[in-house]
Request: fold
Amino acid sequence: LPTQLNEKHHILFSFYHISCDLATKGGSKKREALETQVGYAWLPVLKDGRLASHEQSILVAASLPAGYLSYQNLTPGKANGPDMKWVDGGKPLFKVSIHVVSTIYTQEERLNNYFQECQKVERGESQASSSELVQSIEGLLGMEKIHVIVHFLPVLLNQLLYSL
Reply:
């Protein structure tokens, strides 16, 4: 994964139907493998600013039109779009389970909130008082998963010292 993710990063799945056709032509047997594109599915890497780590059922599109990422938050049965045609009437056909193992991105909510606030400060997006940053630092005190703190300790200490 890239170190800087945004809402446009996603995993794209392509589905093919592979058929083997044994055809006889002029007495000789000929074996052909035919690939037919069936559809596409995509899964955003980030959900609410965090890496998506869960099981999800995904709709499969018959084609991949421009702007397909705008269709990322679809519910079954409500998968209508002007240029989008769905396989099997818009039923969620593809089930995928994602388990994130990362030394860069944490799955712990309080630590993730703190890192997000630090990024806002670094980018200059935090025009309001630093109360949100202070709240995220206070949230770190309530963390019960010490192994997560130890795992991200170098980054956490670096950000804390930078915040001072």
Observations:
- The chain has a mean pLDDT of 79.
- Helices lie at 109-123, 131-141, 146-151, 153-163.
